[in-house]
Amino acid sequence: MTTVNGTETKTAVLSDEILQRCLERAPRYDRENSFFDEDFEELKNAGYLLMAVPKELGGLGMNLAQVMQETRRLAYHAPATAVALNMHIYWTGVCADVWRSGDNSIEWLLKEAADGEIFAAGHSESGNDVPLLYSTTNAEQVDGGWRFTGRKSFGSLTPVWTRLGLHAMDSSDPDNLRIVHAFMPRDAEGYEIVDVWDSLGMRATQSQDTVLNGTFVPDKYVPRVIPSGLAGADLFVLALFMWGLGGFANVYYGIAQRAFDITVEAVKGKTSVALSRSMAHHPEIQHGIAVMRLILDSITPQLDSLAQDWSNGVEGRNYASDVVSAKYTATEGSFKVVDTALELVGGFAINKRSELERLFRDSRLGRIHPVNSALTHELVAKFALGLDPDDLQRWG
């Protein structure tokens, strides 16, 4: 249950039976480095992909706070499935928030999502550690639309997406750089998907590279052309930070909670020739469990209060800084929890048949997901000091 505008609302979309099946399939997807086809079909049929689409447009009408709870539940059972689907869900959440504000310019995306279109993210680029706000991909305005040239990585959902959400830089006027946000249809011409995905963790996402070679996207699929940097960020961009980073944070929190629960049960049954009772009675094991619990307890209120405040329209918060901070706390804490879990459970946890071994690899990727540690510290400090976050003098 979550409380929104003083009302408790049930957020469960997925049954325990569906979640259990996702849990059982996760090791195979990881082992085979294959896409989560069965998960995708089952979750789609259950309505998971329509959580954030307004009821008036054919969805379930759930807000950020509600969706994050369900994201966390799925991540507890199948992290790679959850993080990949977050790419689709955050687009629908962003557009739903824009739509609720009275701006109907992206209503088409919500209607397409309700009709079964699948949206993915094309934001990550080599040489760009400031995602969304700047880009190494070039955007050129032409008759009827834009042409895009560049290479996108880590988009997730490569086998199934039908619309690739991407951004690029229009540098036709060097004094007025602009970011172009677009959604490239799968049947567009002039792009290539390159099969490169064989990663440390989150393997089921199948986040192949997409190379854009002057790919044309018509104006109807270009919802925003705005100044680069945070100075040009409107509700569309701010909501993208909230839904995207909030989703990542809750995925990795779900991983940490799963690792904690596995560890608690494992140490209760773990014995030692030096002890007459289980290792749960060893003071250092208890200390480790406490460390894990304390980390989890510090993450939960930060994530939940942020999501509820955004959903309730609470003013006075610096959401850009707060969501970057929350994502950092969740991903750093998650890795610490899973790392501690391996120490407490012991050597057998590193076996490839161990769920903790997979969770360890998955959790490590949270610290790589944007926004990275360097940019997190820079943004949080600049906001706290009242400095211009777009001051990029660090780059000379």
Describe what this molecule looks like in 3D.
This protein has 396 residues and is of the alpha+beta class. Helix 3 runs antiparallel to helix 7 (283-311), helix 6 packs antiparallel against helix 7 (283-311) and helix 6 packs antiparallel against helix 9. The radius of gyration is 21 Å and the shape is globular. It folds into 3 domains: 2-118, Orthogonal Bundle (Butyryl-Coa Dehydrogenase, subunit A, domain 1), CATH 1.10.540; 120-230, Butyryl-CoA Dehydrogenase, subunit A, domain 2 (Beta Barrel); 232-389, Butyryl-CoA Dehydrogenase, subunit A, domain 3 (Up-down Bundle). Mean pLDDT is 93; it is low at 1-9. It has helices spanning 16-32, 37-46, 64-77, 79-100, 107-114, 235-269, 283-311, 319-345, 355-364, 373-385, and strands at 2-4, 7-9, 119-122, 138-142, 145-152, 163-170, 178-185, 191-194, 209-218, 224-227. A hairpin with a 7-residue loop joins strand 6 (163-170) and strand 7 (178-185). The strands form 3 sheets. It has a 4-stranded mixed β-sheet, with helices on one face. The protein has a 4-stranded antiparallel β-sheet with strand order 4-5-9-8, with no helix packed on it.
Give descriptors for this structure.
396 residues, alpha+beta, Butyryl-Coa Dehydrogenase, subunit A, domain 1, Butyryl-CoA Dehydrogenase, subunit A, domain 2, Butyryl-CoA Dehydrogenase, subunit A, domain 3, 3 domains, 4-stranded mixed β-sheet, 4-stranded antiparallel β-sheet, 10 helices, 47% helix, 14% strand, globular, disordered N terminus
The CATH homologous superfamily of the largest domain is termed Butyryl-CoA Dehydrogenase, subunit A, domain 3
Beta-strand percent range? 5-15%
Q: Can you tell me the CATH topology of the largest domain?
A: Butyryl-CoA Dehydrogenase, subunit A, domain 3
Largest beta sheet: strand ordering: 3-6-7-10
In this structure, how is the largest beta sheet organized? 4 strands, mixed
Low-confidence segments? 1-9
Give the number of helices.
10
Identify the CATH class of the largest domain.
Mainly Alpha
Integer tally of domains: 3
Distance between the termini: 49 Å
Gyration radius, rounded? 21 Å
The average pLDDT score comes to 93
* Helical fraction: 40-55%
Reading the helices and strands in chain order gives EEHHHHHEEEEEEEEHHHHH
- Number of β-strand runs: 10
* Form type: globular
What is the architecture of the largest domain at the second tier of CATH?
A: Up-down Bundle
Structural category is alpha+beta
